[in-house]
């Protein structure tokens, strides 16, 4: 496992994009390395094998199970997020090491909604974000602070302010880096966020 690596398990569609960006921003603002299934585009690697490999390397995981609506075309729910959460929980029991213990943050729109569709995770501390990026930032930052008490982390207020500033100027800022703001690949999204953080008060707050 790689200390400081955080597996992000969440939807990747346009409706969820602001919360996805907020989670990546928070992880990087706290000086952790975000990892997820879309970080690589390798047709030679089976998607499940890639997810398992990434989970093996991440002692920390943020899992959003809020997307359970029926698909408008097929009238079926999406199970990818609960499935990947199950792999992560299984890894925490099967791949234990004395040096690094896996820890998970589970997010949903409502704190107790999971009881209706995923009751087997009863006992986990589920946090709600109400589809609000600010609440997702608070949940992720406070969870990182609780599980990594040897690190100095920026405040929720500072992370939220910088995220909102970046979001408000996203298009010109991305263009200034020679990139296109629409449908940023994960590697470019990390570059954009990393550049913003390096030039902001967030970097000084970690020193």
- The proportion of residues forming helix, as a percent range, comes to 40-55%
**Which band does the percent of strand residues land in?**
5-15%
Amino-to-carboxy terminus distance: 25 Å
The main β sheet shows up as: 5 strands, parallel
| Beta-strand segment tally | 5
Named CATH topology: Rossmann fold
Provide the number of structural domains: 1
Helix and strand pattern: EHEHEHEEHHHHH
Oligomer: single chain
What is the CATH domain class? Alpha Beta
Supply the number of helical segments.
8
The CATH architecture assignment turns out to be: 3-Layer(aba) Sandwich
Poorly predicted regions? none
Describe the 3D structure.
Helix content is 44%, strand content 11%. The chain has one domain: Rossmann fold (3-Layer(aba) Sandwich), CATH 3.40.50. Strands 2-1-3-4-5 form a 5-stranded parallel sheet, sandwiched between helices. β1 (5-9), α1 (17-29) and β2 form a beta-alpha-beta unit. It is an alpha/beta fold and 207 residues long. The protein has helices spanning 17-29, 47-56, 80-94, 133-147, 156-168, 170-176, 186-198, 201-205; strands at 5-9, 33-35, 60-64, 103-108, 126-128. α1 packs across α7 (186-198). The model has no long low-confidence stretch (mean pLDDT 87).
